[in-house]
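Sample entry follows:

:::
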Amino acid sequence: MSDTPPQNPDFDSMTRDIAEVPAVEVLVTVAVNLMSAAAVKLGLTEEGDKYKDLDEARKLIHALGGLLDASATEISSFHASPLRDGLKSLQLAFREASLVPDELGQGPGEKYTGPVYG
């Protein structure tokens, strides 16, 4: 064991690092993180149903829909298209996983995307 206290992060350095990241990259990274978390909560990962929680998945998918809607004019279609496709896939997976599916247009994120059809 070491008697040396743990090093505190260099917040000035971290701030400079994030300052160099373009906004589009931050938005895409956040969207991908939301998509990944939603996939886990939908039971779509190797762990299957171990972490499945549809209430949590709904929140994540809804937040993703809001982020994509709000940033649509800020990110190019090069970035937006695959994110929208991922959102739709998650919305469809949610609908399939639900014992009592939401009415069309009432599912997670559909406030932003409109009804999602299979």
Q: What stands out?
A: The CA atoms of residues 31 and 64 lie 6 Å apart. The chain is about 60% helix and 0% strand.
